[in-house]
Amino acid sequence: MLNKELLKILACPICKGELILKGDKLICLKCKKYYPIKDGIPIMIIDEAKELNREEYKFKDDKR
Ligand SMILES: [Zn+2]
For the whole model, what pTM was predicted? Predict the structure, then answer.
């Protein structure tokens, strides 16, 4: 699992915005994209960013 300290210094490579950890994904709500986490290492590569579907960014208000 990713630790919270690490999460704090991570930012979306596209918009430099805040990322939200959800399961094995780091989600950017601004870009509506997520970055996969493989073996505990977030793949912060723009080309690896995947589109979020509507289901996945519904938790918007739950910012933790
Ligand atoms: Zn972003």
Answer: 0.77
